[in-house]
Write a structure and sequence with these properties.
alpha+beta; two-stranded antiparallel sheet; 40% helix; globular
């Protein structure tokens, strides 16, 4: 997915290598105001046009347009497509990540930041703090 994210090149997606540890996984940041439908379409296009090794089967599949629709539209039904069990589960996994915005949720979360309620304030709001 990281290689696909690097190719995505759209406003709101930034990939920053760690200067102290270049071999480490880079920092991926997603803006809150990103165009979600456009992000889904770009990632799905990248999957179909230049798939990772595990998804090579998509490239020559006769139902590529249907697969594209399934992984980008949460309302489309994947049940009417005939795939092997392994490929079907691959499709469902990627559909979950893209169509239901799980990938965006994971990339937007702030790791190592705990949220709590400041009891001393009048309004109880969740505020980030390190515990």
């Amino acid at each position: 997915l990281l290689k696909m994210m690097e190719k995505c090149q759209m406003d709101g997606v930034r990939i920053t290598p760690d200067k102290d540890a270049p071999e480490a996984f880079p920092l991926v940041s997603i803006d809150d105001d990103i165009d979600i439908p456009n992000f889904r379409l770009k990632m799905a296009n990248l999957l179909v046009e230049d798939p990772p090794l595990d998804f090579e089967w998509i490239k020559g599949h006769h139902m590529t347009n249907r697969i594209f629709h399934i992984i980008t539209d949460p309302d489309s039904s994947p049940n009417d497509i005939s795939l092997s069990e392994e490929h079907f589960y691959d499709l469902l996994s990627f559909r979950g990540l893209l169509a239901f915005d799980i990938l965006l949720q994971c990339l937007r979360s702030r790791h190592r930041v705990n949220y709590g309620v400041n009891k001393d304030r009048k309004k109880r709001r969740s505020v980030p703090f390190r515990g």
